[in-house]
Structure formats: structure tokens, C-alpha cells
Amino acid sequence: MEEEHRKGKAAAPWVTAVERELKQDGAADPAVEEARWRKHSVYRVPAHIKKAASSSPYEPQLVSLGPFHHGRVDLQPMEEHKRRALLHLLRRTGRRTAGDLAAAVEAVAETLENAYMDLDADTWRGGGGGGRDRFVEVMVTDGCFLLEVMRTAELNGDDYAANDPVFSRHGELYVFPYIRRDMLVMENQVPLLVLQRLVAVIRGPDKASDDAINDMVLRFVSMTPDPPAISGGGLALHPIDVCHRSLLHAASPLIPIIQKGREDDFVPSATELEQAGVRFSRSPTHSLRDISFRRGTLYIPLLAVDDTTEHKLFSLMAYERLHPGAEANEVTAYVFFMDSVIKSADDVRLLSGAGGVISNGLGSDKAVARMFNRLAKNAVLDSRSPLRRVQGQVNDHRENAWNEWRASLIRNHAGNPWAIVSLLAAVFLLFLTVVQTVYTVLPYYQQQSPSPMQTQMGWGNVGLRDEL
Known about the structure:
The chain is mostly helical. It has 24 helices and five strands. It has three domains: 51-248, no CATH class; 270-412, no CATH class; 417-461, no CATH class. 56% of the residues lie in helices and 4% in strands. The strands form two sheets. A three-stranded mixed beta sheet has the order 1-3-2, with helices on one face. Strands 4-5 form a two-stranded parallel ribbon. Strand 2 and strand 3 form a beta hairpin. Helix 9 (131-155) packs across helix 12, helix 13 packs across helix 14 and helix 17 crosses helix 19 (365-375).
């Protein structure tokens, strides 16, 4: 009866919809879904991630780049300078027109649109408002603006007035730091494919190789001085991807392969580790992968901290969190590790001093400690991260009582030469006392010990004297 009732009853609308979707080509097909997700590289940061940050590291402050924040009232003043940059570039190149640039970007417009996840279709992809034309305009204008900014940073704005508010020495000092910051905002990305297409038109295809574009952007946004070239790996997705690659690019060949062994989720603070005999030293490279522990020394890459570091690390962590294609989460793992090592200003002072691991441009050790604490608020260490084995090695060393005793001895006496002399003298006197005691007691035992013949006859010294 129940089965007949079920057959006679019309299916619920949502059931019909699911069955219809299931019949579509590629429905729930992993290969199709993989191709779909691979298209995306620029994301809107979810509200729950934004709420976790005390400041606004996910919002541009000066200039909008790309469609997500285009038209925002507070960013509108920079639109004039973006258009000026386009005009200067076209005037300098002479034989190229705005139409040439638009055609080059139009040819890859669909790929660029797909890079932006959740891009509003009516506004940017088509419709009566000319969405595709508007999208190409934004890509060309913002791309040329970035090319002019990076060119000015290297050539000191030779194509602009000396008192230009943006493209001048003044702008390099007071405006470019904010542009550099906004170039590393997750929602504010311009795909490097745009820059490559524009450079190919302006300077020729030989100047628009993947490595050339990557290095041009890296020189401007790098978090480290003299960053190593990130040759190979193809064209980066956008400036955040360039920065991400550079920070993880080349680990030191001196780092030994971490063998299977203990894996820990945490290590104590730097001051506690120092008390257990752990020393700190700068890794040979700037790669955030270059963290290792060898013969009592914890090697950590140098990080130059300034007032933009927190924002950049927030952006890189958001990229790892939102982009499955990032694969590695080493920036997040590094932040998690540094938050374990740095709990207070004393830890920062220790790492900035003898270790040389942190170059503090904030002026306050407490500010650096608070920065890492904020960054790591929602950081998670991957269970497969090599850092877990490094932390296990550090904790094995720390739990060895001899290492702690030796460290205490060095810490309490190594800085005072008279204390060392007194310690050596005390050890020498103790040695003499032991020797004197041995030489005093030894003849007595030799006198009391029976000879072999007496032993065979069952006599001892005492019994012989009694017999006599």
C-alpha cells in the first residue's frame, strides 16, 4: 500500500531538480570539477576569515585592481592617475594604440574572467551594459598602471614631471608602499597574463617570457632584499603567487633529509629552548622552508619585519587557504611555528640578537610578538608538514637532562672568567682530594688482604695473628 502511494505521489520539486542535474553531462564528475576549480585564482575572502583579523588586511586602502573593488568611492581618486598612466604609456610607445592593447587582452578575456571566482556575470561578462567591454577596459587600464608603477620604481619616473604626485621620487616614497600593499590583497589581484599580453604588444614577445614577467613583478613586491629569480614553473597567477613562490623557492642544499621519527605539534618558546641548550642561527636562504635542527642549533630563515609584513603574511595565508592549487601551506606552517617560538618580547629579543633570525623594523619587540600571535590565531599546522619532525627533534634535545645542565653551566659561568677559574680550581681540588683518599686507604686494604697461600690454607691475616 505504501509503495503504491509513493508511486502515485508526484516527486518533490527538489528531487526532480537533483535528478535532472544528475543527467547533465559532467554532473558530479571529478575530472570536470577539477577543470572548473583550476580556472579560479582570485577569490573573495569569506566573512569568517575577515572577522578573525583585527585590522583590514583583506581590503585595498589606496587603489582598486581588478573588478572586485572597482568603483569604490574611497578608491576613486586613484582612477585619474591610472588613466594618466595609460596615456603616458601610449604616448611613449608611439606606434601602439589603445585598440592594440584592448585586442590583446580581449583574446584571453574569457580566461581572465574565469580567474575571478564569483564574478558578477551581468556586470562583467555581458548583458546590455557591455560587461565584456568594461571588463577589458579595467584589465587594460589597471595592467598599464602597474607597468608604469614598476617602471617608475626602476627608472625614477623619467617620463613624468618631477613633482608628479605618483610617478616621481615623492610618489616612490609615499605612494608606492600603499600600491605595493594593495597589489598583495587577495581580492585586488590582476592576473599576470594581463601584464604578459600588454608587454608583448608594447615591448615585443621576447620581453614577455614567463620568467621575465615573474621577475619584473617580484622585484617590486618582494618581501626580501635581492630575491632569487623564480625561473621555471611557468607564469605566476598574480602578484600574490609571485611572492608566495619566492618565499618558498629555494631551500638550502645543506639541510639534511629529515628522517622518520618523533613528530610534535608544538615547541616551547625561544627563551625556554635556550635554557635547554638550544642555539639559534640564521638559515642559509630566505626560503620559509629552510627551517631545520642540527647538532643543537635551530636554523630559521631571516625575516625583515616592518609595518607591511603582517598584511603580506595575512594575504599569503589567505591565498593558501582559498586556492587549492597552491598545494603547499608552508607560509601558514611558518607562521604557526614562529608563534610557538615567540610568546613574548624576550623571545623576539633573543631571535633578533644572537640568532639574527628577525630584523625588527617595528622598533618594539612586543609589537613583533603580538604580530605573530595575531597571524596565528586561526593557523593550522598540516599533519604532513615536515616542521612536525623538526619540532620533534627540538623537543628530543630539550628533554635530554644533560643538555639542560650544560646550558645552565655555560649560561651561569661562561660570561665571568673568574667564575671559570674558580670552577676549574674546585674541580682540580676535588680530583686531588679523591687521589689523596685513594692513596690513604689503599695500603690499609693491601695489608688486610690475605696472600694467595694463606687463602689456600684457609688462613687470613687476622686468624694468623690470633694463632700466634
